[in-house]
Amino acid sequence: MVSHIKKFETEDDVAVALAKYICHLSAKFIAMHGSFSVVLSGGTLIDTMRKLTESPYVDSIHWSKWLIFFLDERVVPLDDSDSNYKLAYDGFLKKVPIPECNIYPIKEGLSPEETADEYEHRLKHLVANKTLRTSHATGFAKFDLMLVGMGPEGHVASLFCWHFQRFEKQKWVTFITDSPKPPPQRITFTFPLINSASEIAMVVTGEDAADAVKVALGKHANDHYPLPVQKVSPEGTLTWFLDNKAAPWNLGALCVIL
Ligand SMILES: O=C(O)[C@H](O)[C@@H](O)[C@H](O)[C@H](O)COP(=O)(O)O
Which UniProt keywords apply (predicted)? Predict the structure, then answer.
């Protein structure tokens, strides 16, 4: 894995850098294979993507080539205020011309287990018909870019510290019915699927995240029971986008093990 840490003074600086980075990857992957598969988290990430919907980025991206997936999703109707799809739609998707058929929300009205199985089945179908690439190393789908947020105690997607889903090795998508972050019923990509990605951006802003960022980038990275965020390790490149609140120390002073 190749990794980079990009730290900026403010959250607004992170938003600008993130838009440039996504724009660059969009052009690169579309030139390479004709599409750009992007996986979105919920949380503050969607707002931090806001510059993409503005000039000059919005006019320079081939939106019709984008494919949108959800790293984790709350098992609620798509118009519920807890839905990550609704969050992404209101904050980003409705502002850019991505064809509706290229957006892959969960299927409504199923149990958490059925929702996860159905999403995994759809991903496998998209791999089989070559809409998505496969990782030759793992056999899992290989997304071009995953945009990942982190909770204050180091969770990513809906993979939480003291919950077994983080250890899943076979499934592509799993479910949780007692998420410590509400709402309790969710589905989530598993680590083997996450880590098969070409590019992962860890987008973390705000002081609540500082302790977990310090652990993730610091000398405790090989602890016996690592935080979920410490298991993010893509086949391609991991790029951290941090603001000064999330990483208030001199990064050079940390013993970075990446
Ligand atoms: O559905 C969710 O809750 C998310 O996908 C979750 O994994 C989120 O990305 C982190 O909790 C960070 O959230 P914030 O950016 O709001 O801190």
Answer: Hydrolase
